[in-house]
Design goal:
The complex is a heterodimer of chains A (224) and B (200).
Chain A (H helix, E strand, L loop, with lengths): L11 E3 L5 E3 L6 H10 L1 H5 L24 H5 L19 H16 L7 E6 L2 E5 L4 E5 L9 E4 L2 E5 L4 E3 L9 E12 L3 E7 L4 E7 L2 E12 L4
Antiparallel strand pairs in A: 1-2, 3-4, 3-7, 5-12, 6-9, 7-8, 9-12, 10-11
Chain B lengths: L2 H5 L9 E2 L16 E8 L7 H9 L1 H7 L4 E6 L6 E6 L4 E5 L5 H13 L7 E2 L3 E2 L47 H8 L6 H6 L4
Parallel strand pairs in B: 1-6, 2-3
Antiparallel strand pairs in B: 2-4, 4-5
Classes of the chains: A alpha+beta (224), B alpha/beta (200).
Chain lengths: 224, 200
């Protein structure tokens, strides 16, 4: 049973073991520990609750007669059963410098080979290397035969290294060039509704449009 | 009902499909326009080829100047329905009838023919094509086998707690320790202090 002593009011308490006594006497030791948790403030400050700055930043309006501030702060929920994974620890500066040097060496090395990248085009992401094809959903304003530079690059890598952007990489670091090969319509999609005996039917044909890009080169410049 | 469509219906499985491709690795070197020839067939006198005649008089020359690599034939025949035939380097032909179309529609049709390659319009299974799918090696489930320690398992046993016991702050586990300090000691402004600051 919880004590609620507002403005110095004395009330009768009934302990869980069955005994009853007034607020002035706390002789029953097994109950005192539980009461202290509820009313640590009230015991110290002459049976008065002080509304200090709590989590919400404003005084609480008590919805239950016997409730205290502590109960509002520590409401359990289903999320408490979930064990959150530990976040990764930071590496030291020495390790960081070593890794940065090795990556810079990999980039400046001419015989590093082919590079791949993750590119954000027309609402979708593609993993891209040299001389491969991409088909986007929708027309681009470029004409057929134009050369384009794809700017939203999320990730670049080779055989020995990868550079991950948060979320994008800088333009001075990466360069991806592509040519527009063709702009086609796609397969018609028939959208048809029918309900029997209700004279309800609709028909709508949707034709998507696509552009096909050929990626010419994926390049990395050393500016680390 | 017999046949593939009768038994299964008009689905993606019964209708033909293909993978993304280009004609002879088109974009690797100089890009080559795939449209070879356009033949416009129409009648000189009848009403159904009125807009076709209008298009030939007004818009055809501009179209030809924009696409200099395309050969255009305009063939007037008596009592011929208006028709456009586009031929590609593939060897494929695409025919479109212009019986009830305006000049603007005819222009759009010709421009789509010019932008396309001769590949048939069919459901394409993948939006990409690569000859080299992996550089760092393909993933297989035994790649990082040694780094996975079975001993460091998460504790899935349910822990019984009382509703009145104080529970720790669960967001502490999501932050690094130097970031927690920043989070807890961030500046809390009053209404008046916020009003003095600029908007945005």
């Amino acid at each position: 049973m919880i004590i609620s002593s507002m403005f110095g009011r004395i009330c009768n308490i009934r302990c869980l073991c069955g005994k009853s006594f007034s607020t002035s006497t706390f002789d029953h030791l097994s109950c005192v520990s539980r009461f202290e948790k509820y009313n640590s403030r009230s015991i110290n400050s002459n049976n008065k609750i002080t509304f200090s700055k709590n989590y919400l930043g404003c005084p609480l309006r008590k919805q239950h007669f016997d409730a205290t501030e502590a109960d509002y702060l520590n409401v359990p929920s289903a999320y408490d059963r979930y064990v959150f994974p530990e976040p990764p620890e930071l590496i030291s500066e020495e390790e960081h410098n070593i890794i940065a040097e090795t990556v810079a060496d990999c980039i400046t090395n001419v015989s590093r080979g082919r590079l791949f990248a993750v590119v954000y085009v027309a609402g979708k992401q593609y993993k891209v290397t040299d001389y491969d094809l991409i088909r986007t959903d929708g027309f681009m304003s470029a004409n057929v035969g134009d050369k384009i530079r794809l700017e939203k690059v999320l990730l670049v890598g080779g055989e020995d290294f990868t550079l991950v952007g948060r979320p994008l990489l800088k333009r001075s670091l990466v360069k991806i060039e592509a040519t527009v090969i063709e702009k086609t319509p796609g397969v018609d999609k028939v959208i048809q509704y029918f309900r029997r005996k209700k004279s309800f039917e609709k028909k709508y044909i949707y034709t998507p449009s696509h552009t096909v890009l050929r990626i010419n080169c994926v390049e990395v410049y050393s500016n680390l | 009902m017999s046949g593939l469509f009768g038994s299964r219906g008009f689905t993606n499985k019964t209708r033909p499909s293909a993978f993304l491709r280009s004609i002879l690795q088109n974009g690797v070197g100089r890009p080559v326009k795939q449209l070879k020839r356009i033949t416009l067939k129409f009648c000189e006198t009848s009403q159904h080829s009125l807009y076709a005649r209008k298009f030939v008089e007004e818009h055809l020359i501009d179209f030809a100047s924009r696409h200099p690599s395309v050969v255009i034939y305009a063939l007037p025949e008596t009592e011929a329905f208006p028709q456009v035939c586009a031929e590609y380097l593939n060897g494929r032909e695409e025919i479109c009838e212009l019986n009830k179309r305006d000049c603007d529609d005819i222009l759009k049709i010709l421009e789509t023919f010019a932008d396309r390659s001769g590949v048939e319009i069919v459901r394409i299974r993948k939006d990409f094509h690569t000859d080299i799918p992996s550089l760092q090696g393909e993933w297989h489930p035994f790649l990082n086998f040694r780094s996975y320690n079975i001993v460091n398992k998460l504790d899935w046993t349910p822990k019984l707690t009382n509703a009145w016991d104080p529970v720790g702050k669960p967001w502490e586990k999501c932050y690094r320790k130097h970031e927690l300090h920043k989070l807890e000691n961030r500046p809390v402004l009053t209404y008046e202090e916020k009003a003095e600051k600029p908007l945005g």
